[in-house]
Amino acid sequence: MERQIINKKKRVFSVEPNKSHSAAFTRKYISHLVPALKKLNMNKNSSQITQQTVKHEVDMALALSAQEFAWSRFLLQKLSSSKNPTTTTNSSSKGTQVLERPDKEGGDEEGEIEEKLRELQKLLPGGEEMNVEEMLSEIGDYIKCLELQTIALKSIVQDTT
Amino acid sequence: MGGESNEGEMGFKHGDDESGISRVGITSMPLYGKADPFFSSADWDPVVNGGGFSSSHYPPMAMDNPGMSCFPHYPPGSGYPDMTASLLPFGDCGGGGQIGRFLGSDKKGENVGRLIGAGETHHEDHRQVSGDGVLGASPSRKRRQPEAESQRNKKAVEEYQEEPQRGSDQSQKKHKSDQSKETMNKESSQSEEAPKENYIHMRARRGQATNSHSLAERVRREKISERMRLLQELVPGCNKITGKAVMLDEIINYVQSLQQQVEFLSMKLATVNPEINIDIDRILAKDLLQSRDRNAPTLGLNPFTGFQGTIPNVSTTTNPQYNTLPQASKYTTLESDLQSLYQMGFVSNPSTMSSFSPNGRLKPEL
């Protein structure tokens, strides 16, 4: 029965091919994350499961599920090099700075835009090593994957509560 | 055009049916496929987007920059491999160089397509059209830098790669341009070529700087605006925003909020982790179902309706959802935003639904 379900899930009909790809991403993501979490559960005592490790697994699952994008490679590099949380936690503090900065005059607009582009680059894993055009494309994919990830995480959390 | 996704990637650009997630999916392979017949047709009506030029074989693209043409020239009948080969040796045109890198990735097809799309305003005409077996002479059209900027008439052609050809080419050029000066003058567009080796044939708009550097810069900026437009569709609530800075702000905020949400959820997951008893299939089925709810109004596909009819044990509260728009009140605002953006494929087979019929909750509540 289980296998049936899995097989049937693979047959996804969609109006647009995009949807099947989103479904594929979600499938991959969950299939990466859930076993990893289970493994975490088994290997460590519950007291040791910090948010850090969970975040690490979450990010790892994201990176593994989206390997066709450049940012996922960067993310993987970051994750494998250190077990620390990725820039996502840091960016939240930086984010407020963007909002609070007073609006510059029109003459400075170009610079302002560049500033924001740089800010955006920091948000994207590996964004700083890309040129702007590439970064903008990757950001789109990153956003999409983040959305999918959010939904997947929500359903996991909901499932266990 | 753009209907098929040549690469199975998520398309966050919805402009043309998600022809590919990772890239500006303005043009995809089908468009490229059209290019061959286009080139082989004897009439070289310029592909134009706006600007009062005669219209084109290409439907207007999402880019609305009249007068900008980034159109790779290649001999008619040449196949796709030819084109990518010719596009690969990109030179110092700023945009070109980056495109070259782009092409280096495995998204070749789309990039090529995009280049074509980007070059919609190709008011080709005169020179090439002048009916003297222009298509046969098309290889000579792959030229680069013009002689001098003082030559306003579109003699500017790009050098293909062979410098020695330049002399003979120029003579041809002059011949053609003499023939069709009137047509050129009618069209009041200046020509200015992108520098050196790239085959992106670019024109300066009337009254704009024709410096090669600024031209490349303009191309680059066009591309960036292009992508920003697509991003605009992706980020919720950005449809009314005009202006790069505000748009970028929105995007930044959105990405940050998404990341924070992920963080929050992972924190929550960490707290509940010890009691975790996850059934992957259940989650997957639920996930797909959630998306199905969202898609109900948009998809009238047979599998879906078939599904609807065969699941008796789905609770009645959920049934209406398949017929009506998902009600925002049932979800958090962010979720509804996500759901409106997020389209997933769904499972057609009804039997999968029964796997979680014991699970009474079919909508996410957080």
List the helices and strands and how they pair.
The complex is a heterodimer of chains A (161) and B (366).
Chain A: H1 2-10, E1 12-13, H2 17-43, H3 51-65, H4 70-81, H5 87-100, H6 109-123, H7 132-160
Helix pairs in contact in A: 2-3, 2-7, 3-4, 5-6
Chain B: H1 29-40, E1 71-72, H2 80-87, H3 94-104, H4 108-118, H5 126-129, H6 138-141, H7 165-179, H8 181-187, E2 200-201, H9 212-234, H10 244-272, H11 280-295, H12 302-310, H13 319-323, H14 333-341, E3 346-347
Antiparallel strand pairs in B: 1-2
Description of the structure:
The complex is a heterodimer of chains A (161) and B (366). Chain A is mainly alpha-helical and 161 residues long. Chain A has one domain (20-86, 112-160). Helix content of chain A is 75%, strand content 1%. Chain A contains 7 helices and 1 strand; from the N terminus they run H-E-H-H-H-H-H-H. In chain A, helix 2 packs antiparallel against helix 3 (51-65), helix 2 (17-43) crosses helix 7 and helix 5 runs antiparallel to helix 6 (109-123). The longest helix of chain A is centred in the C-terminal third of the chain and has 29 residues, at 132-160. Residues 84-101 of chain A have low confidence and may be disordered. With 366 residues, chain B is an all-alpha fold. The model of chain B is unreliable at 1-72, 74-195, 292-333 and 340-366 (pLDDT under 50). The two termini of chain B are 41 Å apart. Helices cover 45% and strands 2% of the residues of chain B. In chain B, helix 1 (29-40) packs across helix 4, helix 3 (94-104) runs antiparallel to helix 4 and helix 9 (212-234) crosses helix 10. Classes of the chains: A mainly alpha (161), B mainly alpha (366). The interface between A and B is large, with 88 and 92 residues. Strand 1 of chain A pairs antiparallel with strand 3 of chain B, so a sheet runs across the interface. Chain A: Residues 81-94 have a biased composition (Low complexity). Chain A: It is found in: Nucleus. Chain A: Its main location: nucleus.
